[in-house]
Write a structure and sequence with these properties.
This protein has one domain (3-176): Rossmann fold (3-Layer(aba) Sandwich), CATH 3.40.50.10310. Helix content is 40%, strand content 7%. A 4-stranded parallel β-sheet has the order 2-1-3-4. The protein has 7 helices and 4 strands. The protein starts with 7 loop residues before the first helix and ends with a helix.
Length: 244
């Protein structure tokens, strides 16, 4: 299901069945001369679309402009960087609206700067916004002191269950640490070029790799579809388990 293409009946069905609502957290970032600017976005979107072929989910609109950072290229490189505080406030309002509407099983799937599941600025923005929106919603609907009230006496028993409000919004990588260790992970090199090649072959142009020389793109000469297919397969295995 696609949120943009849905009607109130579909939204109600997703909410009542607690079906995952999945947002791809994307970027517009320079990936050398051979990978498209939407690489991180496309990897997340491609995997989520494939996941939807075998698992019932609702795909929400992608959030593309984000805190990409100018770590790889400067502000002339084509990278679009949104300042972290502005971005956090933006996604806070997105989450606030989704919670108010009744969604209780929201996932943000990110490929950007997620080596070994490290918490870099974009991921932290999503996670902080999620907690802010959740805390505000709980106080608004249950009142101040909600957690200390007798109605929440079983809070710790339900920490792992669907009734835990702090599991309503989860921010996860496209590739877990285990998957990264099993296949490899980099920026615009052999591994990222391969997974993008598997999902969107038209977005990788290895014949352009010598247009600009970068240390981080040299290994992309070894990129291949077979490796990319294996990375997609292992990533999907992980996502099927992670998105419940």
């Amino acid at each position: 299901m696609i949120f943009d293409n849905s009607f109130p009946r579909e939204v109600k069905y997703v909410q009542e069945k607690n079906i995952p609502l999945v947002i791809c957290g994307g970027t517009v970032e320079y990936h050398g001369p051979h990978c498209s600017y939407g690489c991180d976005t496309l990897v997340a979107e491609g995997l989520v679309k494939k996941l939807a072929e075998t698992k019932e989910i609702m795909i929400a609109p992608t959030i593309s402009y984000s805190p990409s950072s100018f770590a790889v290229g400067d502000d002339k490189s084509g990278t679009v960087h949104v300042e972290e505080r502005a971005f956090e406030n933006y996604v806070y309002y997105v989450f606030k609206s989704l919670l108010s509407a009744g969604f209780r099983n929201i996932y943000v799937v990110i490929h950007h700067q997620f080596e070994q599941e490290s918490e870099m600025p974009m991921t932290l923005c999503y996670r902080m916004a999620a907690k802010r929106a959740t805390m505000e919603y709980l106080e608004k609907t249950l009142g101040q002191g909600w957690w200390g009230s007798e109605s929440y006496a079983n809070y710790y028993e339900e920490l792992e269950g669907a009734n835990n409000p702090f599991s309503w919004i989860k921010v996860i990588p496209t590739m877990s640490t285990a998957v990264q260790n099993a296949t490899g992970y980099d920026h615009a090199g052999k591994y990222e070029s391969s997974i993008l090649m598997s999902l969107y072959p038209e977005c990788v142009r290895l014949d352009r790799i010598d247009d600009v020389k970068h240390w981080f793109t040299e290994s992309a000469r070894e990129a291949n579809r077979e490796l990319g297919d294996e990375m997609v397969r292992k990533s999907l295995e992980y996502l099927r388990e992670a998105i419940k």
